[in-house]
Write a structure and sequence with these properties.
By secondary structure, this protein is α+β, with helices and mostly antiparallel strands. It has three helices and 13 strands. It folds into two domains: about 130 residues, Beta Barrel (Lipocalin); about 80 residues, OB fold (Dihydrolipoamide Acetyltransferase, E2P) (Beta Barrel), CATH 2.40.50.
């Protein structure tokens, strides 16, 4: 009974996740929907085939703001063996389309309660090997990712507007970042371009207590004064 209740809650939550995002794009990509994607949860994991390692342990996380994070660990490979990417997601009647920060696309489709990876054109992969990720409950990966966006700090709170996705996220407390930002902005109270290797996590909002996506700066943070997301 408990398992059935949890499944029902997951279905209702992810129906909202998929039903509210990118409606206009859905109509453009697939005007006549012959099959709706079933409600799915927010995280999946599985081991995908690898040509030169034992397998690629792949974790995929979808978020309500239309973004995703994917972590891939190459089993049996030399260090570093884990890599993470992120971007935006959209859906058609039958496919989930992931677009990363460089514009490259990855395709999945619902397969039972899981997610099956498709080929580069969005077609099923004819193979005896496993290409399906199973639903799991897992935390966002801590693998650093290269990010670029506008950083703004005011009233004891920092906001990062990602250049690739356009999404705004809170920034975890980081005294060094705050000092470097103050130097970079000078006398102007305005956003400054920041490049950084970081990862996303969930932290409670200090006012509401709601868990919100937050950027954690891991390393190589650099402010570039006088530049913005459109700068080369």
């Amino acid at each position: 009974m408990k398992k059935a209740l949890l499944s029902a809650l997951a279905v209702s939550t992810l129906f909202a996740l998929f039903g509210c995002n990118n409606r206009s794009e859905t109509q453009v990509l697939q005007p006549t929907q012959t099959e709706e994607l079933k409600p799915m949860q927010q995280s999946w994991r599985g081991v995908l085939p690898c040509a030169d390692c034992e397998g690629i342990e792949t974790s995929l996380f979808l978020q309500k703001d239309g973004t995703w994070v994917m972590n891939q660990r190459y089993q049996g490979a030399k260090e570093p063996s884990s890599f993470a990417t992120y971007g935006t997601w959209a859906r058609t009647a039958e496919k989930l389309v992931l677009t990363d920060t460089t514009g490259d696309k990855t395709y999945f489709r619902a397969k039972g309660e899981g997610m099956e990876m498709l080929d580069r054109e969005g077609n099923p992969i004819e193979s005896q090997f496993n290409y399906t990720l199973a639903p799991v409950k897992a935390a966002l990966p801590a693998t650093p990712m290269a990010m670029r966006g506008m950083y703004f700090y005011m009233a004891d709170a920092a906001i990062f507007t990602d250049c690739a996705t356009g999404r705004k996220v809170s920034v975890a407390n980081n005294a060094q970042l705050e000092r470097d930002y103050a130097v970079a902005r000078g006398n102007d109270s305005k956003p400054v371009l920041l490049t950084v290797d970081g990862h996303f996590t969930l932290e409670p909002n200090p006012d509401s207590g709601e868990m919100v996506k937050t950027l954690v700066a891991d390393k190589d943070a650099k402010f570039i004064a006088g530049k913005d997301c459109n700068s080369k």
